[in-house]
Design goal:
The chain is an alpha+beta fold and 78 residues long. Helices cover 36% and strands 13% of the residues. Strands 1-2 form a two-stranded parallel sheet. Strand 1, helix 2 and strand 2 form a beta-alpha-beta unit. The longest helix has 19 residues. It is elongated and about 55 Å long.
Length: 78
């Protein structure tokens, strides 16, 4: 009985998308200076923190497929 439950795999996906700053333009696709990368990493870190403020992002999937997604821009309404 317990074995059947233990075999069920679940996946929670958090969708983090880097949104460029107004001054970056197309250069974000090829400009990888230390300063630019630190800005991108910092933005990702802050997006992760904002996501973790939403407890529903960490809830165990309840659907039959065992997969849930969370997109801060849609689900977090920020």
């Amino acid at each position: 009985m317990l074995r059947a439950i233990a075999d069920e795999k679940v996946y929670s996906l958090v969708h983090l998308i880097y949104r460029s700053n107004h001054y970056e333009g197309h250069s974000k696709d090829y400009e990888f200076s230390r300063l630019s990368m630190e800005e991108h990493w910092r933005a990702g870190y802050h997006d992760a923190l904002r996501t973790l403020r939403h407890p529903e992002a960490l809830q165990r999937p309840r659907n039959h497929e065992g997969v849930s997604t969370f997109d801060l821009a849609v689900d977090g309404r920020e």
